[in-house]
C-alpha cells in the first residue's frame, strides 16, 4: 500500500473521530467503516493526532459548505473529484438528484470503496473511475470525455495537489483550463514549510516525517501561482482563521497569529495565502 492510499484511510479515521464528537461540525456515518482496521492502526501509530484531526475536520466542513453553496447558486451539473480517496459526499450531502458525481482514484482505493459501500445508495448519479492521476495522457483523455458530456463542471482536488510537483500542478492547471465546460476548481493550498511554525510532539514528528517528506507542491507565490495561470480567485478561506472560528484551532494558533500580526503584518498575510481552502473560477 502506498502513502496516498494510507493517507485516505487515515483521513477517513479523522472524519470518524470528528463525527463522534458531541459538537461535530458534520456527520459522516460511513467514515468509521471505510477507515477500518487500517485507519485505526495508522491513528494509533501516529498517536491521537488531535491537531491533524482538527485540520481535517475544518477542511471537510469548509469543502462541504462551498460545494453546497455552489450547487445552489450555479448551474453545475457535474462534480469531478480527482484523488477522491474515501470521500463520502455523494452519500451524505444534500445533492440534486440530477447531479453527476465522478470519483477518480487508484484501482485499489476504488475497488475497496466500491465493495464497502455497495449496499449504500448515493444521493445523485455516481461514477467511479480507476486511473493513475500522474499519467497526464490518460488524465487529459478523461477530461475531454467528461467535457463532451457536461455543461458546467466543478473539479475537486482535496488532499491531492500537495503530493504533486509544481510542474505537475502547472500541467494540471493547463489541462483543466483547456476544457470549455470545466469552470470551477476547489482545493486546499498548504505550504509544508509553514507547518514548522508549530512545535511538534514526538508522535507528531513521526507523522510529519512519514507524510511531509512526500509533499511537494508549496509555491512561494501562494495564490498568485494560479492567478498567473489565468484563474480567478473566487473564494479563499484561511485555515488559521477558520480553525479558530470553528473552535478547532491548532495548538498555539491564536498566540502565533497575535505575534505575527504585531511583528510582521506582511508575513502574516503571506502565511494566510499559503494555508487555506481555495475556489478558483476560470476567467
From TrEMBL:
Domain of life where this protein originates: Bacteria
Database matches in Pfam families: LCM
Protein name in the entry: S-adenosyl-L-methionine-dependent methyltransferase
Family: Belongs to the UPF0677 family.
Classification via InterPro entries: Ppm1/Ppm2/Tcmp, SAM-dependent_MTases_sf, SAM_mthyl_Trfase_ML2640-like
Gene Ontology MF, one: methyltransferase activity
BP GO annotations: methylation
EC number, UniProt record: 2.1.1.-
SUPFAM superfamilies in the cross-refs: S-adenosyl-L-methionine-dependent methyltransferases (SSF53335)
Keywords: Methyltransferase, S-adenosyl-L-methionine, Transferase
Purpose: Exhibits S-adenosyl-L-methionine-dependent methyltransferase activity.
Amino acid at each position: 500500500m502506498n502513502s496516498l492510499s494510507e493517507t485516505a484511510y487515515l483521513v477517513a479515521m479523522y472524519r470518524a473521530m470528528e463525527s463522534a464528537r458531541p459538537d461535530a461540525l458534520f456527520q459522516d456515518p460511513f467514515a468509521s467503516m471505510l477507515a477500518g482496521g487500517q485507519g485505526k492502526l495508522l491513528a494509533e501509530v501516529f498517536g491521537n493526532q488531535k491537531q491533524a484531526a482538527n485540520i481535517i475536520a475544518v477542511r471537510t466542513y469548509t469543502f462541504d459548505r462551498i460545494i453546497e453553496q455552489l450547487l445552489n447558486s450555479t448551474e453545475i451539473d457535474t462534480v469531478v473529484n480527482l484523488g477522491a480517496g474515501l470521500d463520502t459526499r455523494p452519500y451524505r450531502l444534500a445533492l440534486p438528484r440530477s447531479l453527476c458525481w465522478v470519483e477518480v482514484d487508484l484501482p485499489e482505493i476504488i475497488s475497496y470503496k466500491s465493495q464497502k459501500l455497495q449496499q449504500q445508495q448515493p444521493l445523485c448519479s455516481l461514477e467511479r473511475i480507476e486511473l493513475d492521476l500522474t499519467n497526464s495522457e490518460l488524465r487529459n483523455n478523461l477530461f475531454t470525455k467528461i467535457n463532451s458530456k457536461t455543461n458546467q463542471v466543478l473539479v475537486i482536488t482535496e488532499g491531492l495537489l500537495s503530493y504533486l510537483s509544481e510542474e505537475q500542478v502547472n500541467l494540471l492547471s493547463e489541462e483543466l483550463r483547456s476544457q470549455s465546460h470545466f469552470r470551477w476548481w476547489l482545493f486546499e493550498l498548504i505550504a509544508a514549510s509553514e507547518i514548522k511554525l508549530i512545535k511538534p510532539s514526538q508522535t507528531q514528528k513521526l507523522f510529519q516525517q512519514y507524510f511531509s517528506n512526500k509533499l511537494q507542491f508549496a509555491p512561494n507565490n501562494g495564490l498568485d501561482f494560479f492567478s498567473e495561470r489565468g484563474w480567478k480567485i473566487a473564494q479563499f478561506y484561511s485555515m488559521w482563521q477558520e480553525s479558530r472560528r470553528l473552535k478547532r484551532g491548532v495548538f498555539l494558533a491564536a498566540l502565533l497569529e497575535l505575534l505575527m500580526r504585531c511583528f510582521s503584518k506582511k508575513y502574516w498575510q503571506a502565511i494566510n495565502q499559503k494555508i487555506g481552502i481555495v475556489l478558483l473560477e476560470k476567467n
